[in-house]
């Protein structure tokens, strides 16, 4: 059985190599490839592709070129969402992953187009790697109006809106859509692709839901706990710009309690499964506890 | 055999009904549905979905709910591209299809997100309707960095760039990527979905290539021939803002000759096929000749 650390050590470089090589190799215009690669290769944790691969590994499936292609497709889509979230009309951020954001580096039109290019390319890699229209359905549902983009819309719509500042249900829904849906989809695609029996699939999806909810809370805590240098982006910013999230609603201590509780639930979801690699993802959250 | 007029008269209302009903019915947040529907229901010609359906009809295939879903998915994707092309950072247009553009009506963040929602939703409808990962591959390739977005990037990059003003190869490539790729994909998806034999498929693809090339030239001619009221968007604008296209390179008379030649080639491509509905699309171009 693979541990999280082993999986991470083995596949992070393979993911990075695949991303860089295929972005340049499969794009006719090398300038567009460079603009896409600038953001994709800025050194993210590759959390979502690793989640996909860890789920496959826990299900006892082999990981080869096709599985890497699907995993990397998810990362392209995640990167697109970061580029568009940072745009002047959205969060207007200057730094991301320790570098100038795409629009600061290349211009606003170029950044919009880099995102517009990464999204279909990511979906294409998922369709190609899986040869499954079901995976194409899962990913497009997760990032569409009922998923990630819906959450970003609620975020934009609610910023500086005092009426929702203490509306826990609204904030949970917004955060789930923004971040949770893509995390859930990464695990769900692996259970479908890996043909998990339905009882097993349910356990993994329950884990993914708790893990995904925890991730957004973790991300909010990073905003107050880490310095800008550590996080690679502007921190201590949410409250300043009038963002409503779990943290601004509950404060640091209660938010940490929420996170601890979610971690326990996620651990419980996988009881009886030999899913060590997947459970190891929860250690990520220790640094803000 | 269905004529183009019959097909258009029968399916345009069905397409419009499907789009409106499903956009609201399948979107949880009705405000996001409204923002998407505002642009989708602004009264386009539904050219690309009709091309998909006309190809199926010419191949002798039945058209039902699934085929409509695929056709309408193409229209969602086309609408996304219009919304993003109109953004302040891109062409900065105030009017489209006779209405305020999405960002003028709803705000810039909302317009970016409406496009970001329509793209995956359109791909989802295509995957759902076809239950084919191959169609998902075709459409994502057509609108990605080697297709539509690549063309838009070249357009942005070359505006006011005198070095490419007379570079026919560059301009052909840019226009093909921007407009031709999605038109070709609409026909190609129908040949794959409709299981056209390979010799037949080749004829349809040849037609789609000539038709798609002609369409961009037609669109440029509309810019000078039609008044703003007729076109529903700003016209006489390309030359003003330093756009390079076939028309600015060749002038009106030579461009018209090009268009006539392409129409003849497209007609020739389908010799021997009973593809009356598809050939009827070429009549569209008469109004600028």
How would you characterize the overall build of this protein?
2 copies of one chain form a homodimer. Chain A is mostly helical. Chain A has one domain: Farnesyl Diphosphate Synthase (Orthogonal Bundle). Helices cover 70% and strands 1% of the residues of chain A. The first copy, chain A, is built from 14 helices and 2 strands; from the N terminus they run ααααββαααααααααα. Chain A has helices at residues 4-25, 30-40, 47-58, 65-85, 102-106, 108-130, 133-143, 148-158, 168-193, 198-225, 228-231, 246-250, 252-269, 276-279; strands spanning 95-96, 99-100. A two-stranded antiparallel sheet of chain A has the order 1-2. In chain A, strand 1 (95-96) and strand 2 (99-100) form a beta hairpin. Chain A is globular and about 50 Å long. The model of chain A has no long low-confidence stretch (mean pLDDT 93). At the A-B interface, helix 2, helix 6, helix 7 and helix 8 of A face helix 2, helix 6, helix 7 and helix 8 of B. Chains A, B: Belongs to the FPP/GGPP synthase family.
What is the strand and helix layout of this fold?
Two copies of one chain form a homodimer.
Chain A: H1 4-25, H2 30-40, H3 47-58, H4 65-85, E1 95-96, E2 99-100, H5 102-106, H6 108-130, H7 133-143, H8 148-158, H9 168-193, H10 198-225, H11 228-231, H12 246-250, H13 252-269, H14 276-279
Antiparallel strand pairs in A: 1-2
Helix pairs in contact in A: 1-2, 1-3, 1-4, 3-4, 3-9, 4-6, 6-7, 7-9, 8-9, 9-10, 10-13
